[in-house]
Write a structure and sequence with these properties.
Oligomer: single chain
Structural class: alpha+beta
Largest sheet: 7 strands, mixed
Shape: globular
């Protein structure tokens, strides 16, 4: 069916802020609004969000985007949701109130649960079914922790009185009515990050639920990424809620990476590199994740390999907020450009352990190679370079797993405005780095999923036609220098190991 609306809205609920962006048929931004929410750190290694605050911000930004564009809900054909992925919410079906703070994807409190599960079968115990190692990153152990520590939660969850899910489920339930008939669903991409979904069946796996200790009764139904889930109430009254994708999968769609071998890297709080592997899940033996790319309606699911880096833009925030070396995040480029190189200094930002390709929860952040010569300019440069080096390690692993050499890299996210970083990324990879005209690819991907479900866009060819190049950086570094810098980075990484017992 052809939709009657003129635009498609996307709700992009990220780790530090929530945005609503409204797009036209050409994938151009019509209007937007953004609000931050609190980051709560109750103790070392713990990271929490207030899910009620996130929902309030969502209502606020939707109203703000409509108002700034002078739009009514009548011109919105559909709304899609994209979200920080593994962050886990447990809430009361009758009151709509969370029973505890949301546990954020960066949180490490489930290390003991993951160690316990790994005693029988090791870190890759569930990898054949889930594509994932046992790690604090994923949602299933977070949900078990909530069920074990919130008084009465397990009994109530087993009775269906409590509902659980990632942020997409929380938002869609509230958007479609909440306690008054809200739809409790998730999509395959978010479900694939729980350690509870079977990659082959695309459903909750009874053996995984039992092993990890999560009752099926509290979990959402798993749906395609592009499908009409329900109709919005309230601020988007009457608009079909028709798309949901975890943020990195949404960015893959927004970058039009629809063919096997096409890859994108998103530079946000963390850094996430996904490569489309087509209709077959590719197992990884080099520390990557096998995950869903997307599922569009009744079409077969498309899979991806992912390299997840915990800390990228968050390292810039740390430099700003914890050390006070810069006033604004954007100041880092000028400070880093004030020196010619890193002065021999390397920062390994293992604040939450190391994700791909190491999966070392015992690692902690280090600054290596310090001498009296090193200034804040060198530390700023080392901060940016850390993201590029981590990306290079993930791409090496991807090549080893897939056999597909990278010929160019499509990039998006907040850090791609930093030309110094993009040039260094191209230099250390040895391939061109390409930034698209619309860098809000995460929101665009969610809009695409919703628009495809409602007929606003006909097919993937229409979406491919929307993609356009804004800037390209080509490698200019000599090979011996590249090899030397990368070897020193690898040495610095080993210094972060074995810090936590």
């Amino acid at each position: 069916m052809q939709s009657s609306g003129r635009y498609v809205a996307a709700i992009d609920q990220g780790t530090t802020s929530t945005r609503c962006i409204i797009f036209d048929h050409g994938g151009r931004i019509i209007s937007s609004a953004q609000e931050e929410h609190r980051q709560i750190f109750p103790q070392p290694g713990w990271v929490e969000h207030d899910a009620t605050e996130i929902w309030a911000r969502t209502v606020q930004v939707v109203a703000g985007a409509l108002a700034s564009g002078g739009l009514t809900t009548g011109v919105i054909a559909a709304v899609g949701v994209t979200n920080q992925r593994e962050t886990t919410v447990l809430w009361d079906r009758a009151t709509g109130e969370p029973v505890a703070p949301a546990i954020v994807w960066q949180d490490m409190r489930t290390a003991g649960i993951c160690d316990e599960l790994a005693r029988d079968g090791g870190q890759d115990r569930f990898r054949d079914r889930t594509g994932l190692p046992l790690a604090t990153y994923f949602s299933g152990p977070k949900l078990r922790w909530l069920l074990e520590t919130v008084p009465g939660a397990r009994v109530r969850a087993e009775a269906g009185e409590l509902l659980a899910g990632t942020i997409d489920s929380w938002l869609i339930w509230n958007l479609t009515g909440g306690i008054d008939g809200g739809v409790h669903v998730t999509d395959v991409t978010n479900a694939s990050r729980t350690l509870l979904m079977n990659l082959a069946t695309l459903d909750w796996d009874a053996g995984l639920l039992e092993a990890i200790g999560v009752p099926r009764a509290c979990l959402p139904r798993i749906k395609p990424s592009s499908a009409i889930f329900g109709t919005a109430r309230g601020v988007l009254q009457g608009v079909p809620v028709a798309g949901a994708l975890g943020d990195q999968h949404a960015a893959l769609m927004g970058q039009a990476c629809f063919a096997p071998g096409e890859a994108k890297n998103t530079y946000g709080t963390g850094c996430f590199l996904l490569m489309n592997t087509g209709l077959v899940p590719v197992p990884s033996s080099h520390g990557l994740l096998t995950t869903l790319a997307y599922k569009l309606g009744d079409a077969p699911a498309v899979y991806a390999l992912e390299g997840s880096i915990a800390i990228a833009g968050a390292l810039v925030q740390w430099l700003r907020d914890n050390l006070g070396l810069i006033e604004r995040a954007s100041d880092i480029e000028a400070l880093a450009a004030s020196v010619e190189d890193n002065g021999g200094a390397y920062i390994v930002p293992a604040f939450s352990g190391l994700f791909a390709p190491y999966w070392r929860s015992d690692a902690r952040g280090v600054i290596a190679g310090l001498t009296r010569y090193v200034t804040k300019g060198h530390l700023a440069r080392a901060t940016l370079e850390a993201t590029a080096y981590q990306t290079c390690e993930v791409i090496d692993a991807m090549h080893a797993d897939s056999g597909v050499p990278l010929t160019s890299l499509r990039v998006d996210g907040g850090m791609v405005a930093n030309a110094l970083l993009m040039q260094f990324q191209s230099d250390i990879l040895g391939v061109p780095v390409i930034r698209p005209k619309v860098t809000e690819t995460t929101a665009l991907g969610a809009a695409y999923a919703a628009g495809l479900a409602t007929g606003y866009w006909r097919d993937l060819d229409e979406l491919r036609a929307n993609w356009g190049q804004d800037a390209i950086w080509r490698p200019s570094m000599e090979e011996p220098r590249r090899t030397s810098l990368f070897a020193s980075w690898k040495k610095a990484v080993t210094r972060s190991f074995d810090w936590e017992e």
